Amino acid sequence: MDDATGGGGDGADETVAGPDVGDADAEPGLLAELRANPRLAAVEVGSLAVALGLPVATLWALVSGPRPDTAVLAAVVVVGAAFASLWTLVYPVYDAL
Fold this sequence. Notes:
By secondary structure, the chain is mainly α. The protein has 3 helices and no strands. It has helices at 30-36, 38-63, 70-96. Helix 2 runs antiparallel to helix 3 (70-96). The chain is elongated, with a radius of gyration of 25 Å.
């Protein structure tokens, strides 16, 4: 016998079960995580909307005429800075709690 198997005793044929084995109601993957943390899910969906909206707003401001609309460009910068600070400053603190 191989020394790594411990001599093939009674427990040698048992499989190691993970924490989710036997829990038939557990949802695997992303949906389970989102349902467990609804606040985090809302932040992630909002972040997706911001990430899709910022390039559209920037393009709209730049092609709107001979002079770019500075109010829209300023809003893009402010929203982008808030978005970046959320994920680099606020979220790590929330995650640590």
